Amino acid sequence: QWSYKLADCLNLEAEILAITGQASRAADHLDRGRRLIDQLLARDPANRRWLGLRTIFQMQLALLEPSASPRAEQLLAEARATLEKLVATEPQDRLAAQRLMKVLRSEAHLSLEAGRGDAATTINRAVVIADRFLQEARGNDRMLSGIALCYIAAGRVAAAEGRRDAADGFWKRAAGLLAARVATSNDWCLVD
Prior knowledge:
Elements: H1 2-19, H2 23-43, H3 48-64, H4 70-89, H5 94-114, H6 119-136, H7 141-160, H8 164-182, H9 188-191
């Protein structure tokens, strides 16, 4: 249990380090945390909790890579494959679905930057998940932030494809979603 908690703490600290521009230290923390999780997974490769945290390390490491690097794409593809399996075996696992939405959003961003034509397909998969979360009408500020970021990314993809009305629609959905909460929240994810 302590190994998992330490890995989770390393992940949280890495997120703060990355946000404050300390990418090298963040990568070191993520590598240490991922090694701890890999040791745990060697004992129990089907542990959903440990697999989920491993995908976070993969996502975070991918985001520290230069845009559209092969390593970033590989890390995200591995995380997506793991999360798709977790969601397929447990469709009600909201955390796995939320992480899958984030990975898909990140993959769409990389695809858009690389000029590949699959960004719209990828972001549309993330939007389906976001819409499902909104229909369930359950979620905290962090989840709403993730949904809004998904809509913003979908707007960017639509704008890049010349679909200005669709882009505006996605951006308005994001703004509408956040409007009521942002005035009363101090959650940095939501305010950002």
